[in-house]
């Protein structure tokens, strides 16, 4: 009698799943994206990292369940669980890539990192259509490796309080070891299936590993875990007694926020560019302001100065710093806020005007 009831319940669940399958993926995507945006606050908060870690573990669990289901090792209610495993795996991957997109977006200058951001967005949206592809062992393991590597890139610097090529390479090795351990464990469950997919697994994961390296060393991956909180061009910057920054800015209309290229009216006092950069607690690194002007004759940007200062992480509103030029020619200027390797944290473009009336200045304290 119990077996008959269990069979009926299983049949009902499968029928419900088949009927509402097309609605389940969008609902899971929407719920996961909203949840991550509401709960993910700071890249070095232990709660935020715990949420990501839990989803990574859950994704590994659902991969294992799906693998056992494919190998006909599950029976009864566990077999029903295996039937729903692709949907649960899809939810965990959706939550992971949603979190990654949020954090990488905060660290990116779109003009420099748009290929990587678009790739993450593709994985985030494409995940809603990958449910059938998750039946393929090589595909789900490749997605898992991508998730592990995407997390390790910013988790390792947060833990070790350092950034740079060596830390990035360590992140890659950790990701390879973790996915290698997962494949090793699966080899005891489905040795024949794993043998069939071995070549595809090696090629796909090896290709992903190479792509991540190319994107990093061409400075396309954002300089995560750094993020630009604020930047601007000012007529004067001084330090107050309490350690704050007093900025003298031109009064602008409310809609100036939406104008990408600012206007600066040149005076005899020079030009100051201010930036506030968030870094995880305890992380120390050097930041550079690279000044360039647009040469209309050659159609290229010409670098004039690269000014550095050190930052220390931990402040919610970011570590504050500035650079200045005592004299500047009229025209279009750009200041890239970047790391020592040239990864762009943010970019400020403004037009310098000469011989015009200077608008009223306002004082801003940061």
Automatic annotation (TrEMBL):
Instruction: Check the record and name the Pfam families matching this protein.
Output: DUF2914 (PF11141)
Q: Which UniProt keywords apply?
A: Membrane, Transmembrane, Transmembrane helix
Q: Which residues cross the membrane?
A: 23-43, 49-69, 81-105, 111-130, 142-160, 166-189, 201-221
Transmembrane helix keyword on record: yes
* Organism superkingdom: Bacteria
Please state every residue range assigned to the domain named DUF2914: 285-352
| Name of the featured protein | DUF2914 domain-containing protein
Q: Which organism is the protein's source?
A: Candidatus Sungbacteria bacterium RIFCSPHIGHO2_02_FULL_51_29
